[in-house]
Amino acid sequence: MPDSRPEIVFATPQDAETLTQLQIDFGDEFDEPEPPFEVLLPRFRRFLADPAGFALLARRGGTAVGYAVVALRPAIYNEGGHVATLDELYVRPALRSQGIGAVLLAGAVEESRRRDAGEMHINVDSGDVDARRFYERHGFRNSLPGIDEPVLWYFAEWDSD
Amino acid sequence: MPDSRPEIVFATPQDAETLTQLQIDFGDEFDEPEPPFEVLLPRFRRFLADPAGFALLARRGGTAVGYAVVALRPAIYNEGGHVATLDELYVRPALRSQGIGAVLLAGAVEESRRRDAGEMHINVDSGDVDARRFYERHGFRNSLPGIDEPVLWYFAEWDSD
């Protein structure tokens, strides 16, 4: 069984095509369509050049099988002065349940800590039970200490895809 | 009735004390205690010096009666390449229902657009019905287009207050 530990690397601008395709496949799988490749590609290029964000690639046998995208913002919530948001985390379906997601998440947390983030935020569809279980297993919570109700994510967009 | 339009200004590092006190009062009102003044003050000072964030103060008669805190991060979700998070929005209880929150929110959106954010995110306690109604009235949604279930906010912290 090809269950060797994946190689985790920081994505560089040269990995923008790979990330773009993974992002499109991620969206297709969850019926949340992404913009076309040629629209998304320059966005990844720009993101990868921004010091306030980073992406990780999981490779096995030289092929990218998963990725994580993390962005940091300044915040007053901890001594480090930053919050990291895990904006994307995906492993190709055929390679799940082998711990690749956990290794990507651990790498995302490690690099976020190195960059002075004191916490990580993630938005998860309430119906995505697998993802919720995964994050809860890794110490993420959906309610603030002492408050027994979930926190909801709201958004408004004015520059829509 | 003292219902004049508030003055909205960008907070500067000189406003750190004012923001710190407002933040503490905000936390007290919602039983989510903040760190002590002397811990929070340098965090606000640092935040206000960071070009990736800004704060707005609402003043009436020279007194600060409300504030908003916004931080930006790079993202692949829109052509502007940034997401703005409204991390705090507060108006003193005695001055509510006079449109001050709406003016602060409008100012936060306007400045976020100017800084190339294509969308704004907010985390709201599910039990905070007033806040949810306020944001929904101003165009914020809790579910993605085409998906009829709320999105949840998860977090993990390793540098806790």
Walk me through the structure.
By secondary structure, chain A is of the alpha+beta class. The first copy, chain A, has helices spanning 16-29, 37-48, 100-114, 129-137, and strands at 7-10, 53-60, 63-74, 82-91, 117-125, 151-157. In chain A, helix 1 crosses helix 2. The radius of gyration of chain A is 16 Å and the shape is globular. The mean pLDDT of chain A is 94. Chains A and B meet through helix 2, strand 3, strand 4, strand 5 and helix 4 of A and helix 2, strand 3, strand 4, strand 5 and helix 4 of B.
Brief sketch in words of this structure:
The structure is a homodimer of 161-residue chains. Chain A is an alpha+beta fold.
Observed structural traits:
globular; 161 residues; 6 strands; homodimer; five-stranded mixed β-sheet; alpha+beta
Treating each run of at least 4 consecutive H or I residues as one helix, how many helices of chain A?
4
Mean pLDDT of chain A: 94
Beta-strand content of chain A: 25-35%
Strand order of the largest sheet of chain A: 1-2-3-4-5
Instruction: Give the biggest sheet of chain A.
Output: 5 strands, mixed
Structural class of chain A: alpha+beta
Oligomer: homodimer
Q: SSE order of chain A in H/E notation?
A: EHHEEEHEHE
